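Kindly review this protein for my students:
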Amino acid sequence: MDYPLYEISEDQFPGDLSEIPDKPAKLYVRGALPPPEHKLLTVVGSRKYSTYGKQAVEHLLGGLAGYPVTIVSGLAIGIDGLAHRAALDYSINTIAVPGSGLNESVLYPRQNRCLAHEILASGGGLVSEFEPDFHAVGYGFPQRNRIMAGMAHAVLIIEATLKSGTLITSRLATDYNRDVLAVPGSIFSRNSEGPH
């Protein structure tokens, strides 16, 4: 990655991250942080999304094109990756918060490294509190989710099962007094249980 890695402290944190009680001591960044006038919308959801979930991401984010909004998500497979992709397609600023460090060799998930490069090339950024060489591990994802919930002005849930990282992000957003938005779905779909 040709984008230099740099460290920021609390007074430079994006969005409302500096307000949360368990804020990180510092963040590592590649690329650009969102403009200060932007509202930050964290979009999260299931790894195993449906056609409906994909359409919801594309439709809702398409409606934000041209507004001072930055889409925040976790670079994960599924709804997270679709949210970044839709932001790029609609020329909306986007920030990825992976569950790993930001060095190319550890950036997780490997399948979305090209997406990370596109985010950087579009003027967006990658943000992590983990050391640059930190490999993704299970306990790191809830820790990462608090960063996504903490920096956001609102969190949008698009498809999630009852046991998921998406609902951890939702709970944290509620704890941080953020708006939590949910896309309703079929009462017969497990992916609708989380939003409902």
